[in-house]
Protein: Octaprenyl diphosphate synthase
Organism: Xanthomonas indica
Amino acid sequence: MSIAESLSPALGLPQIQMLAAPDMAAVDALIRRRLASDVVLINQIADHIVSAGGKRLRPMLVVLAGRACGAGGPMQHQLAAIIEFIHTSTLLHDDVVDESDLRRGRSTANALWGNAPSVLVGDFLYSRSFQLMVELDSMAVMRLLADTTNRIAEGEVLQLLHVHNPDTDEAAYLRVIERKTAVLFAAGTRLGALASGASEDVQERLYDYGMQLGYAFQIADDVLDYTADAADLGKNLGDDLAEGKATLPLIHAMAHADDATRARLRQIVEQGDASAMPEVLAAIEASGGIDYSRRRAADYAAAAERALDGLPENEAVAALRGLARYAVERRH
């Protein structure tokens, strides 16, 4: 059953944001309070990142998962802040590794302050997240987040191994997504349930939901790098291609192209030739790479919704279903 055919109630994004608003206001206040340092440069870079906005999707998943299990409050807020600190740290490090100069429509921290300060403030955010974990005095929380951050680091290295590698196939691509994106989504939704005292079965369901949602979100995000408007996306189109990253639309095109086109696409990936974007788009169009990738994202989003089956239907569960649909329907 496709997402569109599902009869389960789901909220639209404005309704989701309204439902989560009181919790997210508390999370944002906690984030700003716990970012503070007597080192001025840390405050400057941290404020630049926080004020850039963004969807705050990952911390929202924590509070919605908690509400789905019938509870919410300070522990969920602190866990949500931890998840956002970890995520923001990875963004700072990613922008250095990728030599990015634009994120969320603004100059990246490394473009403004340089690579070294960006890496070090990313380290600060990682360590601050672990300080917040310790305050909760929960071995289950620390075990899950220690494992999650380790897997994220593995994902970063794994992706590095595939840069400028035209032999990257769909399976390898999905392994990177699992570690770089999906595990943090899954940790957030499991933590929301754990903090609410939910059963192991419910925690597992919400972990699976987060994992499937993470796959859907990242595949859809990679499609946008070939289809979105740069102003809406808030970053340069073709960044993945310029960085030599073969994402699913291009992987599909290489797998279904004729020999001459495949050889040319391989050369483009090896060189990270962003000027060849028209050629790449033509090959992706000819192979149906965009439609294929959107179907794969929709499959994962549908799996995320199925993971919620059996949970008591309430507004928060409807919001989680809505986020699964939003992940693949968004255009920026």
